[in-house]
Amino acid sequence: MWMVVLSLVPAGIAGVIIFGQNALWVIIAGILSAVLTEWLCQAIAKKKITLLDGSAVLTGLLLAYNLPPDVPLWIPIVGSCFAILIGKQIFGGLGQNIFNPALVGRVFLMASWPKLMTTFSAPFDAITQATPLAALKEGRLMQHLSYLDLFLGKRGGCIGEVCIAALVIGAIFLLLRGYISWHIPVSFVATTAIFVQCFGADWLFHVLTGGLILGAFFMATDYVTSPLTRKGQVVFGIGCGLITAVIRLWGGYPEGVSYAILIMNAATPIIDRYTKKRVYGTL
After folding, report:
1. How far apart are CA 11 and CA 46, in angstroms?
2. In what helix (H) or strand (E) does residue 105 lie, and over which residues does it extend?
3. Could you give the CA distance from residue 124 to residue 283 in angstroms, rounded to a whole number?
4. 80, 129, 175, 277: least buried by Cβ within 10 Å?
5. Alpha-carbon Rg of the chain, whole angstroms?
6. Which residues pair with residue 121 across a beta bridge?
7. What is the pLDDT of residue 119?
């Protein structure tokens, strides 16, 4: 958990540089709220306090990374509390939760305060700007943006998703150290790219925008909520990619990564059942 947190630091630094100081306060509020909620839940239930395992910090960090930079600070506080309480502790704590807690918190916030969750600032400015995916959904193309701009984070979006370069640095670190494997993220990203291209959309644009890279490498790969076998992980990634592409192309919401991962989280037990290796000598 702490290594994943470390791998996400470059994206956080980039988000603060791009969007300003308020992004830092959102990150701090998300982390502290998650840690405090975890401690309260375990103290009330008289369970062992496990704050040092890093899972609460990671949940708060990822929740903050999935928020617009200028949301009021009560948004990350409410979101992190909901993520820990409903997304994690209600199932019994770490290792027993069905869904990725950070995404549970984000989807709750999206359903409750959609306007706050879909109002984004332009990079290096306080002016409100639509995200590239939202502009595309509205039939507008942001001609002034290049692929390099998208890669470096010069666009509107959530704090931790905009700078693809910083996310790639963290992803390479996790892959080289063996904390994650390539099966889920590569199948996730590749499926999304191939599917949107088949229907006439720009695959590279879709890869570089939204939360695809953040979701594929740092949330879909969560050990607890993803399949155990390599074959199952590929199936999981393909499912995430297909759902993301369908929502982006035809859904009412321009982004689909969060919903895709949560839907596939629910399918993980079924995937494990049909992709698990046979134990010889048993029926």
Report:
1. 36
2. helix 101-112
3. 62
4. 277
5. 18
6. 128
7. 83
Could you report the per-residue pLDDT of 232-251, keeping only the tens digit for each?
999 999 999 999 999 999 98
Residues 6+ away with beta carbon under 8 Å from 155: 123, 129, 131, 132, 142, 145, 149, 162, 209
Mean pLDDT of the chain: 89
Residue type, 16: V
Question: Using CA atoms in the order 196, 264, 6, 158, what is the torsion angle rounded to 10 degrees?
Answer: 50
Residue 48: both structure tokens together: 């062992």
What's this model's pTM, rounded to 2 decimal places? 0.91
Tokens of 179: 């904390």
Asked if pLDDT for residue 277 goes beyond 80, the answer is no
Distance (Å) of CA 118 to CA 84, 90, 132, 152, 158: 23, 28, 12, 21, 9
Report residue 24 CA to chain centroid gap: 18
Alpha carbon distance, N-terminus to C-terminus of the chain: 37
